[in-house]
Fold:
Amino acid sequence: MKCFFLDIDGTILPFGKPIPGSAIEAVEYARRNGNKVFVATGRAKAEFPSLDPIVFDGYVYSAGAAVSIDGKLIIDLHVSGSDHEELSSYFGKRGLHPMFQTDVGTFMEEETYDLFQYYSMKFIGRPIELGGLVRKKMPESLLPRKYLYLASEGGFKANDVQRELPDSFKYVPNTLGFPQSLAGEVQMASVTKASGIRAVLSHLGMDISDAVAIGDGSNDIEMVMDAGCGIAMGNASDDLKAVSDYIAKDIEDDGLKDAIMHALGE
Structure:
């Protein structure tokens, strides 16, 4: 039995388009033949798009900060209050625009939302439809699971953050399609999609050699390297392709089906 872990954007779901029929068929085929299929995404639960009619065995949310199996939450991690205060202060000092990802929504100031959609139109050509965006200050009763942030054009570069973060955090390149100088992500240093995958496997009594990780972005590198079989989509970033065991076809050329069938040896 294999345990599949699939990224969403650029792997299951083409940007701005519906899920390919071949992808739906391949996931259903894998599950029908006794395999487990999970989503492994940087998105929070509130940001999920509709993936109907696909049924999954569970989810790795927020790049590993939350993990659920059959509706039961087995990993539930948040940034500590002191670390959150330190990072929020740093964002302010550098003139960066943070977005705080929680289970009930991703909170941001109105100015940050406007900048987000401006970059979406400028670099992607359309507004990004991301569920759960909340245009107001995050309530003090909440703590984020991870952060997204934007830099102003001509200001401090977003990817320079990686040189200045405290040890409790790690920088992750953005997968939004924006220039890396204008957007990035920050998550807890000990948390990755790979750590979430290992939690799933431990719960199921399976080994990392049973895992198949399929993705397309830089934030998939750890899970693709860690899994027994790591697959990059044909439309994946070059750094992910460089560490993968197999490069599948493009997502719009039945790429997910190609990846799943390769892992099944069919």
In short: The chain has two domains: 3-77+191-263, 81-188. The radius of gyration is 18 Å. The first helix runs from residue 21 to 32.
